[in-house]
């Protein structure tokens, strides 16, 4: 009894200590709004506990939840080898290490900003040009999106996002800013395209929640759909934000990954085509860009936001001091992106490799009886596994996801983590692994589906046989009862 009391006292003391510590910390430190407990991030944690390795851990979990482009590293490495001055921080053979190592202001190196806007234009087929003075460098697209939230909205204001959307937005847009997200509900019946009615319904839903809508944010190409926005959708969005007097953020970090038709259309092209230059609408449209996906350099932390609003640019530039891109990184990449022969060749070859890898995933899943939403861009597919659910519910989706992670050994992202309205959809990445690893992943998923289907068919057969036997037994009982009643009725008559 004394040990029990001692244990209770110890537990109470720990709880009291935790409460005291909590009071000493900020609300931000103790709240649970980061989104780290999403299945999107939990899948990564399970992978890190048991990562697949061809030699050291061949039965481990294959990472298919990470949108990383590893298909064209050889092109980057070849350029570095052929340009030792850039990689060695030299100019005309002379070291500039000290120059780069010393303080640089937060406006960024002019040579890099010039090279970056030219690269952005080249990806878009030079259908639109960008002004380097309207570009703000940030430590990745995450920082760019959050910076725009700080610039455009107050705590408690709302942005509308079409579903399904990137799970990290719950962290990037909301966690530190206090901005709310209201979903624009999109559905598989029209391939999750944005509609006028869905935009209006989301706006009205925000008003019912007493939220002031400050804008719409879209990813183009879409994460997680892997599709580009159509001209019709882009026109809908521009018309909508013009009529409501709100902002539009177009996150275009996958713009260089479009590998088949239809071609990518930037929102800037739509604004120019509709003669919105020098209007309020022109100033309320902002673009987010990054080299994480197009060049496969997420570790370099190079992002940017582009705005026609001078005040947004000025404010974002001041805020960029909290997340600068290193001078060494800017110098190296300015040399790389200024090499037009290299960038043209890289964009073409990278898109070709993405197309091939995309086809491998789609065909591998088709062999397993699984279809994908038709897509033309990005580093992943939006995969339909609704037929594998035990019921049409998000609980069944999580159950299936756990089987795929733990039993099959594949980390994929469930649609519920992307706020999809329909259970059974999953985001599956294909560009962060070798062909051999992708083939192994497809073998695993096919074996799982074959086993699941066989078990389901067996259960259905047993149920049918059981039902048939039950009907036979029921028929026998009915006949016996009828004969008994008939004979009994006869005896009653005889009496």
UniProtKB/TrEMBL annotation:
Gene3D superfamilies: Aspartate Aminotransferase, domain 1, Type I PLP-dependent aspartate aminotransferase-like (Major domain)
Pathway: Alkene biosynthesis; ethylene biosynthesis via S-adenosyl-L-methionine; ethylene from S-adenosyl-L-methionine: step 1/2
EC number: 4.4.1.14
Cross-referenced SUPFAM superfamilies: PLP-dependent transferases
GO MF, one example: pyridoxal phosphate binding
Cofactor list: pyridoxal 5'-phosphate
Record InterPro entries: Aminotransferase_I/II_large, Ethylene_sulfur-biosynth, NHTrfase_class1_PyrdxlP-BS, PyrdxlP-dep_Trfase, PyrdxlP-dep_Trfase_major, PyrdxlP-dep_Trfase_small
Span list, region Disordered: 457-477
A Pfam cross-reference name: Aminotran_1_2
Top-level lineage group: Eukaryota
Residue stretches making up the Aminotransferase class I/classII large domain: 62-445
Enzyme class: lyase
PANTHER family: 1-AMINOCYCLOPROPANE-1-CARBOXYLATE SYNTHASE 9, BIFUNCTIONAL ASPARTATE AMINOTRANSFERASE AND GLUTAMATE/ASPARTATE-PREPHENATE AMINOTRANSFERASE-RELATED
Protein name: 1-aminocyclopropane-1-carboxylate synthase
